[in-house]
Every structure is written in C-alpha cells, then in structure tokens.
Automatic annotation (TrEMBL):
Residues 1-41, 136-156, 192-220 are annotated as: Disordered. It comes from Halolamina litorea. Residues 209-220 have a biased composition (Acidic residues). Residues 147-156 have a biased composition (Low complexity). Transmembrane segments: none annotated. Residues 1-12, 192-201 have a biased composition (Basic and acidic residues). This is Conditioned medium-induced protein 4.
Length: 220
C-alpha cells in the first residue's frame, strides 16, 4: 500500500469508523477479477442458449454445443465460413444459427433496399412474394413474365428478401428482449478473453477501458 492509498484509507476509517468495509471491498474486487473462467463462460453460454431455445423456435438445426461454438466464433470475429468449418455445417446454416441467437453483424444489414421499408412490410404481415414486388427487387417486368429466366430472377428476389427478413426479425426479437442475450454473451466472452488474451479487434476498445478502470482502482 503506497502513501497516498494509506492516507485515503485512514481518512475513510476516520470518517466512517468502518475499517472492515474497506477490507471487504478490496476482497470483493479481487473476487470479481477471478469471477469467470473460460470454462465457466462456456458453460454459462450454453445455459443462455438453452434458455433461448425454450423461448424461441430455432431454425438452424444445430445442437447446443455447436451453437455455443457459433457464439464464441461470432465474438472472436470469425467469418461464417470459418465458423461453418468448425461446426461441420454450411454458411447458410451458420447464418440461421446467428439469427436464432440474435447475433447480427452490421454487414448483415447492407441490403439492396431500405431495411425500414422491409420492417414496415413485416409489421404489416405482408407475404414474402409480395414483399419482393413492393421493394422492387424483381425488376419492373419479372413478376409479369412467365419465362424460365424471369422465374429464376423472381426466385432469387424472394430469397434475397427472405434473407434480409430474417435479419430484421432477429433484430426485432433482440430488441423485444432488451438485447439481454447478446449483452450477456458479450459480457461472458469479454471476461473470458481478458484472462485468455485471445480477444479480437472488436473487443479491443472494451479491453482498453477495462484496463483504465483497473489502473484507476489501483491508484485509489
């Protein structure tokens, strides 16, 4: 304990008469630093996934162990291709798993039409094929043409709208849950990464802030 810390401690004891509180707080900070091991984080991630499965209808078909790997891969900034290799699935399945788990990337929202327009159609419960028409994804003549080529264009348009509809629906589910699950995933995996030193670039700023907090607490 340096001189400044000692003076602050003496002032606190003199003011409150509660020396034991200071000692308890010091112990608690130590406990928090060691609260979540990587193994504990993995277990709690699976518990969160189980809770989500009870609440939502999952579409990917992956089991909870594979879904746990999807979560850790997402927060490690792995691509869907990398995650797909790790769980022995294809990228489309990984995307569905991420949507099931509310794990949407900013790049997932780069739609060829305004997502706000799609959200409005979803709220109005407009059928998928009609969404493509209203968003003009098929082009001006594709919906009226009966040729094989134009039918393929229409199918591709519906697939595109369905993909971004899944993005919007995942965001809506997350918002209704107050982003609780994604926040808990992030908290758990950030804690684990602090101890494992495997944090990706997406977590770097958060780690720097944590380090500043630790330094401030040490000085106090």
């Amino acid at each position: 304990m340096d001189e400044q810390t000692e003076e602050l401690r003496d002032l606190f004891v003199e003011t409150t008469g509660e020396e034991s509180v200071t000692e308890g707080q010091t112990a608690e900070r130590g406990d928090l630093a060691d609260a979540t091991t990587p193994e504990d984080a993995d277990e709690r991630v699976r518990e969160l996934i189980a809770r989500m499965r009870e609440r939502y209808a999952f579409e990917s078909g992956l089991d909870d162990e594979a879904l746990g790997r999807v979560v850790t891969g997402f927060y490690a900034d792995e691509s869907d291709a990398e995650i797909a290799d790790a769980v022995d699935a294809d990228e489309a399945t990984v995307f569905l798993a991420r949507a099931d788990l509310h794990l949407i990337r900013d790049s997932d929202r780069d739609a060829p039409f305004p997502l706000d327009d799609l959200r409005a159609l979803i709220v109005d419960d407009v059928p998928m094929d009609e969404r493509a028409d209203r968003l003009d994804v098929r082009g001006s003549d594709a919906s009226a043409s009966q040729t094989e080529a134009d039918a393929s264009v229409a199918a591709d348009a519906e697939a595109t709208v369905e993909h971004y509809s899944q993005v919007v629906e995942a965001d809506r589910r997350s918002t209704r849950a107050n982003d609780r699950f994604t926040d808990e995933f992030a908290d758990l995996l950030t804690d684990a990464d602090l101890r494992e030193s495997h944090t990706g670039d997406a977590h770097q700023s958060g780690l720097e802030e944590a380090a500043e907090d630790i330094e401030t607490n040490t000085q106090l």
